[in-house]
Write a sequence for this structure.
């Protein structure tokens, strides 16, 4: 113990999906727990990403907690793909239901976490001066929380307003009648653009890469479906844990070549009409076979050409630089239709890159666009951003990501060698951003809670992965991704080694089901591969 420092069994960093459940779970098992959160409330990404149009792209009935029948009795989702305010209200409701908020300090950022072997604790400092120590540090900071900062020359002299989708101001942003520019057309930009267009005097969309965008087709969901799940929650949870992505998303069992061209089109049309992420998994070989993938990709391009009236504009919006599904598929509500509006202009940054931001707008190499508001939807410093800014250090003064120069190295994406008692749930090497993050967090926090219980029951103070087990798991992560088309595509999920351009796919792609089995087997064998001491 250090003077002035409160001591806990566990410190949980982050009050998002994982952090809320973690604090509840660890408290329930009798551990003393402190939660630390930078924002002024719970919600994590759903607290910060309150940009207009934000909504989930996984069915709401999958994207929620499964640990509590009471929550299922009391909360009913209104929509197939719930919008951000509803998800935030849900997380707030769950946190209140289990007394989670009182265990958190809000408006407080972890500024350092130093492991000391003599105390067998992490000693944590924060932005508010609060100090605390813990036996176990659980980084529930998520993989997509540290925003990629806008680094365009001249931004500092822009006299209008600029905002980031990932940290949309709580006070709201005036959109009506303004000349708005948005940079970034990933999942966030694609959701914001149709709504911004409805309010703006004029919307300028600055697109670097055209992405595949398919209809969400959100719709009201009835109570009967939800009562049905609530009535057998344990079974439903196990069912989800045994799927590839932790959701009810249908997965085609047959390769594309099994179907005639007419049948292929019928399947694709049906999926376009029913909406959702299943466009990624209609045929069993579309993620590995370029020709099969081409058929699905071309179908989406045909839809773009049908929807967008100006053929030249349609070509610019047609995604062609990578196979469909090798980056996150974007779900939309009226994205392509938006480009038929008179008050929307697409600027193709491939042919006309941004030169600078001026006092009054954005200058590309060939034109200047006068703007009142710039919206940055540039994505995140994924996987390591949130971890790095917490300044976690072991006794040698190393940070967890120091050893990840050639791609992350973890055991099960949960721990990394050299960092005793540091848990990284949903970290690199787990299904992570490819899996249902509610179910995954629930499963992993249970795993961590059980692991702490095991250590305490056996008189161990610390645990970390053996080098050999970490190497073996890292190899398994690489093997699982080795045949995937997505390994070749530049994206925040791929680490490219600077020297030989070799590629490492960061999340585990072997499937949620196999991951769950591996994690359970490890635990059942006395945390095989981990070294308790
Ligand atoms: P993102 O997918 O990484 O997209 C970032 C966008 O910014 C891309 O269009 C990128 O262009 C562009 N960009 C970045 N730097 C740029 C620059 N210097 N100049 C011009 N353009 C630049 O980020 P995101 O849209 O925030 O989504 C990230 C992830 O968050 C998603 O994959 C998803 O997992 C999650 N998410 C989910 C939802 C949902 O549930 N519905 C919603 C939003 C986000 P390039 O493609 O050319 O790099």
């Amino acid at each position: 113990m250090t003077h002035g420092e409160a001591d806990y069994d566990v410190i949980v960093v982050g009050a998002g999906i994982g952090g809320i459940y973690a604090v509840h779970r660890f408290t329930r098992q009798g551990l003393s727990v402190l939660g630390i959160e930078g924002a002024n409330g719970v919600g994590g990404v759903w607290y910060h990403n309150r940009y207009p149009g934000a909504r989930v792209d996984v069915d709401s009935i999958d994207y929620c907690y499964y640990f509590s029948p009471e929550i299922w009795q009391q909360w009913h989702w209104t929509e197939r793909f719930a919008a951000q305010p509803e998800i935030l209200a849900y997380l707030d409701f769950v946190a209140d239901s289990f007394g989670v908020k009182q265990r958190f300090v809000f408006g407080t950022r972890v500024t350092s976490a130093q492991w000391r072997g003599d105390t067998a604790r992490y000693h944590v400092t924060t932005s508010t001066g609060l100090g605390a120590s813990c036996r176990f540090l659980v980084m529930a900071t998520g993989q997509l929380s540290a925003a990629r900062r806008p680094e365009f020359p001249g931004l500092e002299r822009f006299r209008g307003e600029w905002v980031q989708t990932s940290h949309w101001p709580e006070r709201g942003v005036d959109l009506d009648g303004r000349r708005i520019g948005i940079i970034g057309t990933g999942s966030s930009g694609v959701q914001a653009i149709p709504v911004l267009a409805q309010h703006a005097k004029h919307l300028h969309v600055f697109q670097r890469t055209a992405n595949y965008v398919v209809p969400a087709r959100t719709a009201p969901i009835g109570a009967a479906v939800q009562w049905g799940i609530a009535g057998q929650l344990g079974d439903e949870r196990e069912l989800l844990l045994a799927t590839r992505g932790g959701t009810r998303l249908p997965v085609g069992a047959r390769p594309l070549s099994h179907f005639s061209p007419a049948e292929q089109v019928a399947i694709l049309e049906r999926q376009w009409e029913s909406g959702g992420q299943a466009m990624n998994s209609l045929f069993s070989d579309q993620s590995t076979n370029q020709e099969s993938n081409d058929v699905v990709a071309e179908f989406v391009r045909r839809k773009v050409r049908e929807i967008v009236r100006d053929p030249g504009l349609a070509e610019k919006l047609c995604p062609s630089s990578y196979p469909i599904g090798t980056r996150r598929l974007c779900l939309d509500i009226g994205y392509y239709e938006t480009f038929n509006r008179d008050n929307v202009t697409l600027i193709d940054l491939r042919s006309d890159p941004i030169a600078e931001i001026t006092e009054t707008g954005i200058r590309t190499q060939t034109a200047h666009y006068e703007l009142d508001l710039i919206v940055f939807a540039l994505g995140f410093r994924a996987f390591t951003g949130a971890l790095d800014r917490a300044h976690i250090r072991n006794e040698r003064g190393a940070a967890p990501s120091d050893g990840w120069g050639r791609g992350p190295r973890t055991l099960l994406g949960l721990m990394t060698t050299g960092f005793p008692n540091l848990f990284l749930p949903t970290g690199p090497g787990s299904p992570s951003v490819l899996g249902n993050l509610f179910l995954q967090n629930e499963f992993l926090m249970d795993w961590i809670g059980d692991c702490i219980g095991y250590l305490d029951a056996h008189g161990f103070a610390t645990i970390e992965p053996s080098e050999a087990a970490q190497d073996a798991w890292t190899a398994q992560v690489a093997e699982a991704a080795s045949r995937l088309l997505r390994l070749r595509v530049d994206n925040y999920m791929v680490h490219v080694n600077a020297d030989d351009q070799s590629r490492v796919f960061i999340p585990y792609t072997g499937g949620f089901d196999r991951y769950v089995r591996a994690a359970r087997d490890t635990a059942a064998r006395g945390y095989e591969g981990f070294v308790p001491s």
About this structure: Residues 55-57, 144, 183-189, 191, 208-209, 328, 349, 377-380, 433, 492 surround NAP (CB under 6 Å). The longest strand covers residues 131-139. Residues 437-457 form the longest helix (21 residues).
